[in-house]
Design goal:
Elements lengths: L1 E2 L7 E5 L3 H10 L13 E6 L1 H14 L5 E5 L16 H7 L1 E5 L2 E7 L4 E6 L2 E6 L5 E7 L2 E9 L1 E5 L7 H4 L11 E7 L10 E4 L4 E6 L6 E5 L2 E3 L2 E8 L5 E5 L5 H8 L5
Parallel strand pairs: 2-3, 3-4, 4-18
Antiparallel strand pairs: 1-5, 5-18, 6-7, 6-17, 8-11, 8-15, 9-10, 9-14, 11-12, 12-13, 14-17, 15-16
Length: 264
């Protein structure tokens, strides 16, 4: 969901370690009276999509989430705005529109019985660790939907992440605010014709690894990986909603729509 932006009295500035991002950081530093991140009302993020995810995860881990305005110094920049060192950054942030992104809350249980809490802004993926295909039981909404999915893996993507790994695995693109999740198999062998499902995000999903000793599976939540997974339980976490800021006419929703019409 989008809403009009508003001025922020206190802005923080952070940049990835790449040469381009560090040059942009030096160029923008004199433009504004920046404050530390823990004192800021919003943060300007210089880098690519991966660095934006790092910043958002760091805020989730710290328990203090503020709006993030990204400027693309990476490759794709799907979560970012165009970088222009000549524009007044504070004015751009003040004009920006807010978009809410809801992450996934994941409980990952490893074969040793330990439970690990993870958050996924884009997607959670289960991936085979060896040459053996994975075998996974799929439960949605308290009912077992597939007793044995034989595949290279399976992922659950949010609307914000539906154009990332999910799209490359032939999953559907989901509009922001649709209240849905994409459940997408990765190279499925059985059931051969199953292409995945679009699910209401209020439903809890459980993915149980079958025969984990012979067919070990890893779980990857955005950029964090756990190996030797026994089971993952996940659901949308509206209580941990994130806010991204976009220039007028450059919203994440428009990019998600436009991605569906790219033919080359």
């Amino acid at each position: 969901m989008a809403s009009n932006g508003s001025g922020f009295a206190r802005l923080a500035l952070t940049a990835s370690e790449t040469e381009r991002a560090q040059e942009a950081y030096a160029a923008l530093l004199p433009q504004h009276d920046w404050v530390p991140l823990d004192e800021a009302e919003a943060v300007v993020v210089l880098g690519g999509d991966g660095f934006m995810l790092q910043v958002l995860h760091a805020m989730l881990d710290a328990g203090r989430v503020i709006p993030a305005y990204g400027m693309n110094l990476g490759t794709v920049g799907f979560l970012m705005n165009r970088y222009d060192k000549r524009s007044a950054i504070a004015a751009r942030v003040a004009r920006a529109r807010r978009w809410t992104v809801s992450p996934l809350k994941v409980e990952a249980i490893t074969q040793d019985g330990k439970c690990h809490a993870l958050m996924a802004i884009n997607e959670i993926s289960l991936l085979r660790e060896t040459r053996q295909t994975a075998k996974i039981e799929v439960t949605v909404g308290e009912r077992v939907r597939i007793r044995e999915l034989v595949c290279d893996g399976v992922l659950v993507a949010t609307p914000a992440g539906s154009t990332a790994y999910n799209l490359s695995a032939n999953g559907p693109i989901l509009p922001l605010g649709c209240g849905m999740l994409a459940l997408t198999p990765i190279s499925p062998f059985r059931p051969r014709r199953w292409r995945g499902a679009i699910l209401p995000d209020r439903m809890k999903i459980i993915l149980k690894v079958l025969d984990p000793a012979k067919r070990p599976v890893a779980a990857v939540a955005d950029q964090k990986e756990l190996r030797d997974i026994a089971e993952v339980r996940l659901q949308i976490a509206h209580d941990a909603d994130l806010t991204l800021l976009f220039d007028p006419g450059q919203s994440l929703e428009e990019r998600i729509v436009a991605e569906q019409f790219i033919t080359a």
